[in-house]
Amino acid sequence: MTEIAMRYRRLSGQFADRLAAVPHDGWERPTPCQGWHVRQLVQHVVETQSLFRGLVGWDPIPTPPVAEDPTGAWDAARAVMQADLDDPDRAGTTFDGLLGRSTFAEAVDRFLNFDLIIHGWDLARATGQDDRIPPEDIAHVQAQMAVLGDRLYTSGQFAPALEPPAGADAQTQLLARLGRRAWEAAPSR
What we know:
The structure is a single chain. The protein is mainly alpha-helical. It has a domain at 3-132: dinb family like domain (Four Helix Bundle (Hemerythrin (Met), subunit A), Up-down Bundle). The longest helix is centred in the middle third of the chain and has 23 residues, at 104-126. It is globular. It is built from 7 helices and 2 strands, in the order ααααββααα. The chain is 54% helix and 4% strand.
């Protein structure tokens, strides 16, 4: 298994664990993604899995509707993506994308793994879970941000950068660059 496939397995599993811990009344809670509640955030994360398969001409992933079964939809999507990443031929499929010629696996690592880290934080923050991001994941996101540059802000997922408070830790600084006020207390439940 490649490093990218292992990272996806870990991050998608962590996202699944956080979904499993969403309280019954938590699906409509607002997230740090302005205008998105938890279910909409999950819908986005599930849909992007098929979007990236579409870049290489593969069929969308059949999933249960997120509105009815958010955890089932995520489990179905991540299982297909993991199988794609575990297959060297599929993972190595090339295409011309936003940053030029890339492999499917490289695109997953650059965009989907990035999303799982940041949207995993959004999900955890919105639902009162542990929202710490490990240092290696902070470093991964920082590296991808350096490559993406200003393109990062054209997707609508990331608000303009904010100025973090003086002395902010690495996680707070990173999240501020993505328009998230990590230094503010999470909404009370």
